[in-house]
Amino acid sequence: MSASEELSNTMAVMTPEERLATVLSIAEECIGEDELLPLLHVKHNPVCYVDFEPSCRVHIAQGVGKAINVNRMVRAGCKVKILVAVQKTAKDLDKVRTISRYMIEIWESLGMNIDKVEFIWSPEQINNRAQEYWPLVMDIARRNKVERLMRLQLNPAHVSATKLLDPIMRCADILFTEVDICLVGIDQREENIMAREYCECMGKNKPIILLHHMLTSFKEGQKMSKSNPSLDIFMDDSEGLVKLKINKAFCPIKIVEGNICLEYIEHIVFPSLEKFEIVRHESHGGSRTYLGMEEFVADYHSGALHPRDVKNSLAKAINDILQPVRDHFNKNNEAKVLHNIVKEYLATNPA
Known about the structure:
Helices cover 56% and strands 11% of the residues. It folds into 2 domains: 3-212, Rossmann fold (3-Layer(aba) Sandwich); 239-348, Tyrosyl-Transfer RNA Synthetase. It has helices at residues 3-13, 16-24, 33-42, 60-75, 93-110, 122-128, 130-142, 146-151, 161-177, 189-202, 239-247, 260-273, 293-302, 307-331, 333-348, and strands at 27-31, 47-52, 79-84, 117-121, 181-185, 208-212, 276-278, 288-290. The protein is globular, with a radius of gyration of 21 Å. By secondary structure, the protein is of the alpha/beta class. α2 packs across α3 (33-42). The strands form 2 sheets. Strands 1-6-5-2-3-4 form a 6-stranded mixed beta sheet, with helices on both faces. The chain has a two-stranded antiparallel sheet with strand order 7-8.
């Protein structure tokens, strides 16, 4: 039996309540949660919106995290539409397409169920229906105040006028793609609320919003970013580099809150491997396999687990997760060519 057939059989026996639990397992917050179960009762294949902006540097949240989340949505019966959201300032669209193909190769090598995913190229979607898209953008802009758009900017004092259009266009992308559920990072909360408010004004069905967790950097308190190559794990990092970065990670003894290593274990390791194995010498308590976060956190908080052992075990787990990606880009000629092109892009534009 193929993976797709097995997935279809799983979906066929899941109740709407079980599908609801699967969907909510992704979300740190669900806006419109009371609307979700009724939707799953009437729609066996609701449409889920996911976006991504192609980048030469693909960190582990973009790679592994997105594959985990998309597969959960597919398992719950959703048809996933991934919008390739091109930066408004992008000039070389061929380069962006190449990077997009590179990211799709990464997701395939991780086991994302690509057969159940539709990739939408945003410039093509906009250009094919420009007479609908731009009036929608202008109508959303007309219904929102400048002050609200300014609050969404990282540096409001030095923001350009074009930057004010970004949240409006992200909101328009959601509505234009015609979806039931939006799966986005918690940093996109306001744009998605704007989309729901607009639908309410227009008497249309509002998309349900799933806001997923966003991994922080290995340096305490910093958001994960492609501009921090020494602080974050990227999909093309070597085994040694993964170990080096994790060894430098913020992981205070007995402290759970804000512990970056524990965050990786919860959001990357357990969803990928369904277990976390502490490998250590018998004189230090011997190896132990955890099947859930609760028991692991209790042991760490009590001091039964030392940060050194956690870091060593986390590095091994992350390398196990990344190994299929390394193998794919080493053995598949087409993927190897893509990777080399992306590396050349990165060499000329490190940011």
